[in-house]
Amino acid sequence: MTAEARRNLRTFYWIIATQTVSLIGSRLTSLAMGFVIFAETGEATPLALVGFFSILPTLFGAAISGVLADRWDRRKVMIIADAGAAVGTVLLLVLVATGAFEVWHLYVVALLQSFFGVFQGPAFQASVTMLIPDNQRDRANTLMQLTGPAAGIIAPIIAGLTYTAVGIVGTIIIDLLSFVVAVVTVFLVRIPKPIETAEGRAASQGGLIKNAFSGFAYLWSRKPLFGLVGLFGLVNACIGGAMSMGMAYLLSRTGSEASAGLVLTLGSAGMFAGGIIYGVWGGTRPRIHTIMPSLIFAGLMLGAFGMAQGTVVLAVTHFLTLFTLPWVNSPAMSILQAKVAPDMQGRVFAAVQMVAMGLMPISYLIYAPLADNVLEPLVGTPGWAAFAPLLGDEKGAGMGLIFFIAGLVMAGICAVAYTLPSFRHMERNLPDYVAAPPSEAETPAPNLPLEGQPA
Q1: Which is nearest to 173 in space by CA: 28, 36, 304, 50?
Q2: In angstroms, rounded to a whole number, what is the distance separating the alpha carbons of residues 101 and 123?
Q3: What's the pTM value of the predicted model, to 2 decimals?
């Protein structure tokens, strides 16, 4: 391995480590605020609305962020994104510390932080291709997938301690310090720029708006990839929409913040364990034979999670629901990195985000209000009698019905998609991107002019 390759690997590991620290800080704040809001309102809708406002910037801004990730220095984009998200944390700190906080303020903060987060995702995902050689990308993508569950394991364990010791204000300060760690690290590292390709140059012709939609055009020209991303959109509407009620559901089923935190921790542990196993195993070739069965299994377990009525069963089913998700995300990311030219990846990954998350806001606006206003009040009445043997007749059973139906629909959609030859054979039928040899490589991508470009 060359000195440059070793340096790039170190850069990747430093970024992953510090982003995990930042994510732990954010999870601490999220858990503490979730406990406070559910205690005040007793409803799932306010927590689901946080997810709704967090998704909106992705739908309306990801296309532009993809263009910037391909045009600007990706390291600078990540610094601006982390620093901007920290502004939202400062705002939340001031509101809570002064006693001026109201629930709607959290929606504003979620919107602001998500706006900056939209710019970080495509920049970092596209940077992986420049930092990690192809034969190590599956493991690198798996490591990226482990940051969330690692934070999900650690944060609930220490959230109670920090909340008790330093209160909500101290917890938010810890979150803010974690942002500082992430920003300083990215400021000190170097991320190579991609070589400009003919395909990337052609897609960059025209104005910003035309460029913003070039990622969609790239996916559309490769129909199986577009279909796979579209399937992820349906999956996210099922599992993501249901999980937006996760805190309210667990608090209702268990009646205990400690038990709810334990179930969340074990769910993250499931995802972490699945990621470790995938990192050692490496999945199947073609990768699609890992992705599709994993999605079907996760859907069935999501349905079982909705049926669970005790802390132990909730913990086991939550563990199993999240266990195979790294077996979906890691190989899917590797497929995209292999099929898409590096100087197009910012725009393509932005398009992937928009398509994959496009239906989630609708599910947020349907699931939680349906549970709060229709299904939960129905529990224990004669109209609930048909569901009681399956889901119980205690508080939380109404939300459980949504988890149950969403899981079965998710498993059914994925099972049907897996029968399609275009899905099963996409890796064979779509050519990989092949970099030109050094003697034929194109000149480095110029720093294209764009208003507001950071210095």
Answers
A1: 28
A2: 33
A3: 0.81
